[in-house]
Amino acid sequence: MGCPSCGTGLTGHFASCEFCGLDDGDLTMLRVFLASRGNMRDLERHLGVSYPTARARFDDLLRRLGLVAANGAATPDATSSTASAPDAERLATLQALAEGRLDVESARDRLGGS
Q1: Do 91 and 16 meet the contact criterion of CB atoms below 8 Å apart?
Q2: Average pLDDT for 7-19
Q3: What is the CA radius of gyration of the chain?
Q4: Is the CB of residue 53 less than 8 Å from the CB of residue 67?
Q5: Pair 84, 105: CB distance under 8 Å
Q6: Which residues of 72-105 are buried (b: 16+ CB within 10 A; e: fewer)?
Q7: CA 69, CA 102: separation in Å to the nearest integer?
Q8: Helix (H/G/I), strand (E/B), else coil: 60
Q9: For the chain, which domains are there?
Q10: pLDDT tens-digit profile of 25-72?
């Protein structure tokens, strides 16, 4: 793991977290949604956008978390023992980064981050 701003690096074996890659805005949106017990209207008010826009942003977040497929269908339960190909690729990228075989920028590119 590394910080692109200051160049500090950390190596070791880390458990991956499906929420660790979310930016502050995504985490805030998820917290508001959970705190409101899934009330999309509360999320709409928090974001200051229309209901369809709030819904679209939340659906996009679900897709990025791998909870909804691009076609809108629910993906298999997260407790499934079989990792999907994208999950396996993501884990391989994170492992290569942790082992120093891949730099932070390359890993970010592979993971689709900004």
Answers
A1: yes
A2: 80
A3: 16
A4: no
A5: no
A6: eeeeeeeeeeeeeeeeeebeebbeebbeeebeee
A7: 28
A8: helix
A9: 22-71 (1.10.10), 83-114 (no CATH)
A10: 889 889 988 988 888 999 899 889 999 999 999 998 888 888 875 555
Handedness of CA 59, 64, 67, 73 (dihedral sign): positive
Which tokens is 82 given?
């079989």
CA distances from 72 to 33, 44, 69 (A): 19, 20, 5
What mean pLDDT, rounded, does the chain reach? 79
Distance, in Å, from the CA atom of 114 to the CA atom of 111, rounded to the nearest integer, reads: 9
Q: How many CA atoms lie within 13 A of 46 on its CB side?
A: 21
Model-wide pTM > 0.70: no
